[in-house]
Amino acid sequence: MSGTGGVYGVAEMDVSLMRGPVAGAPAEVPLLDGVSGPGAEVFTAAARRLRRVVPYDAAAWFGTDPLTSLPTTPIRVENIDRVHCAPYWNREYGTNDVLTFRDVSRSSMPAATLRQVTAGYIGESARYREFMRPEGYADNLRAAFRIGDSTWGVVDLFRRADRPLFDERDLRYVTALAPGVALSLAGLAVAGAHGAPPLGQVPGTALFDDGGRVSFTDEYAERWFAELYDPTWDSPGIPLGMAAVYAVVARARAVSAGQAPGPAVVRLRATSGRWFSIHASVLRSKQGRLGPVTVVIKPASSAQIVPIMVEAYSLTPRERQVTECVARGQTTSEIAAGLHLSPHTVRDHLKAIFTKVDVSSRGELVAKLFGEYYSPLIMTPSADIVEVDV
């Protein structure tokens, strides 16, 4: 699959837009109806609506970082055992598989099936050989929840051999549902502020072995993982809440092998509302031998968070430029000269920005986007992770 550019341009972050019909969608497609709650509630509602018309046997729903498309949270897993977590992400980023989440995020179409992209030669897929066939699944549908060029989430659907294969009708339904899910996920990112945690927190470091398991941590990594998920994050087995961390570890190995662009970085939010930045890289000996993956986790700065906030407010490229100029304290005349615009046009851009961000002055705009605070939850972490039988 290939292609560039998003298929949906959303002017404002108004979740009421989900209530209207989607162009080109079958009339009977059940759309999201203003879903807004925290975390997996978005995916719970989407799964309930989708399953009515597109039956499936197992699924994995992930929120994604809109700048890197790496999985974050919320997470909803249906009928997939947690032992598959690490191999799942190792295949996604460590093999040259087909229909990866990167493919779906970049494609001109937001949904596709594994049999479709392999022209029926599904055995070409490592995902099919190593996971689907042993588990009895015959087909796989993947979709990206996008606003413009930004992917806010993805879904992985599986059907067993005793069901019909996914078809064009199924793809139309999933495609019709996708904009509402994307709007819900993006809207949660700008729902309000919970106050500012102290800055300058010490980063934590953890080492992951070849099997993707945590082998060493320092006290700060333990503290931050516990805040991100819960105190049982290192319990036996693989907590589903750690899926995003295992994904960035797998991405780091793929970067080291030249199979994916770097760096392997993702931003997540904890139950406290605090944002964290997680960076993973593969250590090497002086002789070039590959070692464990080192993961550095630390509370994120506002500079790392603002790009996500700007994406969530759907500011246009020009509006982003004007916003950055405002943050630098430039006057209307200075912004106009620097961007080769008329002062009147700059004022029009500012009015549009104020409306989208829901502020009434430049000071409020700078405080909301560039202040040293951490935005509220796009999810609640492990408490909102669900496993259900379908």
TrEMBL record:
Domain (HTH luxR-type) ranges: 308-373
| GO function term, MF aspect, one | DNA binding
Q: Which domain of life is it from?
A: Bacteria
Output the GO biological process annotations, alphabetical, semicolon-separated: regulation of DNA-templated transcription
UniProt cross-references to Gene3D superfamilies, sorted A to Z: Winged helix-like DNA-binding domain superfamily/Winged helix DNA-binding domain
Alphabetically list the UniProt keywords. DNA-binding, Transcription, Transcription regulation
Q: Which CDD domains match?
A: LuxR_C_like
Disulfide bond keyword on record: no
Instruction: Write down a Pfam family by its short name.
Output: GerE
Q: Supply the name of the protein.
A: DNA-binding CsgD family transcriptional regulator
